[in-house]
Amino acid sequence: MSYRKRRGSRIRPYTFTGGRTRSRHPLMVQTLVSTADPSTDAPAKLMPESQRIYRLCRETRSVAEVSAELKIPLGVTQVLLSDLAELGLVYIHPTITGNSPSENQVLERALRGLERLFQ
Amino acid sequence: MVSNDFSSDIPTKMSTKIVIAGGFGAGKTTLVGSVSEIPAVTTEAVMTEASVGHDDTSATPQKVTTTVAMDFGRITVDQQLILYMFGTPGQTRFWFMWDDLVRGAVGAVVVVDCRRLADSFEAVDYFETNRRIPYIVAMNRFDGRLEYTADQIREALEVSASVPIVDFDARDRSSGGTVLKTLLRYALSNSPVAAPVG
Questions:
Q1: Most buried among A43, A62, B144, B176, using CB within 10 Å?
Q2: Chain B residue closest to A68 (CA)?
Q3: CATH architecture for segment(s) A13-117
């Protein structure tokens, strides 16, 4: 008689995301996210992973940082964050891609910042 | 904390991204680490690959799940703007991930190890071919010396005439910072205002 070995906490990523692999919001690895109302607790109905994301995002950070700090794979993190944004619980900050002329101002700001930091 | 127009910091922060590419061991992670304000972080992406091009899956129609590690670092440029640097996975078989990483980047640096030029060719080729974002080539000065001139590198790796080629030391913060500044200046000179549509 043998017992099946438990595989620790290894769960298929899709289990968290209901089978979805794409997020509905433009969440890139560098996109900053923050909890919309940091003074409130995470709604109890949220999955534990989403609650952890909610708590972590009381301080603004990027999707990649959320993934790394909570050790949740990037794709799963994106989908869970997208759901939280859909519920109005998480705010998605603007991501500057340099694709529109209006963003040049921001790139110039970035350059000035680097010139200050790396003299 | 000083109160100002941005006293609620939530809607005002924004971020941008630079991609650090290059062959395996060329110095990508070293560069990210030397300019980052945080120790370089590794995140993992679970990628579900279709079996196309992988003969080991030809017998089984299921998709294959692969975990790919990515290094990244961060520079807080000012109170509202954060610049992230993402190192591409070095292994060639993770090309499919590059599109995801490159999407939305303001530019890319291809780090070249002059002792192993051939390793950089695919990265240069990627940016030359898809031309979606501006890129520059940064020759990493291992042991303080370079075996090739910028012109030789340009010819060997088939780098367009307009693409800046600089040399630097990936271990040196200031030297790495100069590479990032060069990329941003180049990206600004290539801004969409001047670029033809299409």
A1: B176
A2: B43
A3: Orthogonal Bundle (1.10)
Does B131 contact chain A (CB < 8 Å)? no
Q: How far is CA A83 from CA A32, A46, B33, B168, in A?
A: 15, 10, 32, 43
How many whole angstroms separate alpha carbon B138 and alpha carbon A29? 24
Interface touch B11/A104, C-beta < 8 Å? no
Q: Does B104 touch chain A (CB under 8 A)?
A: yes
The pLDDT of residue B21 is above 90: yes
Residue B31, domain member (yes or no): yes
State the complex-level ipTM: 0.81
Residues A64-99: tens digit of each pLDDT: 999 999 999 888 999 999 999 999 999 999 999 888
**What are the tokens at A64?**
């990649």
Spell out the domain ranges in chain A: 13-117
User: Which of A15, A22, A29 has the most B C-beta neighbours within 10 Å, making it the best mutation to test the interface with B?
Assistant: A29
The residue with greater pLDDT, B70 or A109, is A109
pLDDT of res. A90: 95
Residue B154's domain comprises: 10-42+71-189
Taking phi first (over 0 means left), then psi (-120 to 50 degrees means alpha), and beta for anything else, what does residue A103 get? alpha
Instruction: Provide the 8-state DSSP code for B178.
Output: H
Amino acid making up residue A31: T
What pTM did the predictor assign? 0.83
Contact call for residues B106 and B16 (beta carbons, < 8 A) = yes
Instruction: Give the tens place of pLDDT for each residue, B148-188.
Output: 899 999 999 999 999 999 999 999 999 999 999 999 999 99
